[in-house]
Write a structure and sequence with these properties.
Length: about 200
């Protein structure tokens, strides 16, 4: 009886901890629509000034799914990866805090409540991080990152969003703000929002 009571308390504790975590289950991505691929390629460009308009959850869902979401029943992704090593982690930085995208559950895991964006006029920034414990090859890792930000760039071109890939950011500070362990390194960031007219 005592054992059951203890287990119930532990279960309740886990539920409370979980609901306190403020993780976000994203709506399902919309896997259709947008302009034809050739038109998106024609319209892809860097945008560096953004309007204050926020990005809604549905759009964020589509962006992250385009970046590295699961698009096949075997859990493989929208980007190809060397040896099928899924070593790319994407962090979403916003005014509401920073989150890690979990592609398998299509959800956001809250990392911090702090606004750690470095380009504040863009409503979100994606930080592309590589987990070296999964595949420690910088060349392949950079290819994974490039495939992913290009998918996002094409999504943006297709749906009227602006974006810019940013290699110039304070890497040390961002890794510290995200409390990343030694094996995880941010390669590049990408600011996203609606273009300022
Ligand atoms: C790896 C990488 C890093 C970049 N870093 C920056 C950056 O720090 N700041 C910036 O304004 N643009 C940056 N860019 C965007 C390039 O300047 C831009 O893609 C290039 O000028 C071509 O313009 P377009 O994207 O409009 O075709 C970067 C692009 C890549 C691929």
């Amino acid at each position: 009886m005592k054992k059951i009571f203890l287990m119930s308390i532990m279960l309740l504790g886990a539920i409370v901890t979980y609901s306190n975590a403020k993780d976000i289950y994203l709506p399902s991505p919309n896997r259709a629509g947008g302009v034809p691929l050739m038109q998106a390629l024609n319209e892809r460009k860097s945008v560096r000034s953004f309007s204050p308009q926020k990005i809604d959850e549905k759009t964020l869902s589509n962006i992250l799914w385009s970046a590295v979401g699961v698009n096949k029943e075997d859990n493989k992704r929208t980007i190809p990866t060397a040896l099928n090593k899924q070593n790319l982690d994407i962090y979403v930085l916003s005014e509401e805090g920073a989150f890690l995208y979990d592609a398998l559950s299509h959800s956001l895991i809250k990392i911090t409540d702090n606004d750690i964006r470095q380009k504040k006029d863009a409503p979100i920034t994606l930080a592309y991080a590589i987990d070296k414990s999964k595949l420690n090859k910088d060349l392949y890792s950079a290819m994974h990152v490039g495939s992913s930000y290009q998918n996002v760039g094409l999504y943006c071109a297709s749906f009227g969003l602006g974006n810019v890939v940013r290699g110039s950011f304070d890497k040390e500070k961002l890794e510290e703000d995200l409390k990343l362990p030694e094996n995880i390194e941010i390669f590049v960031t990408q600011a996203i929002g609606y273009p300022q007219n």
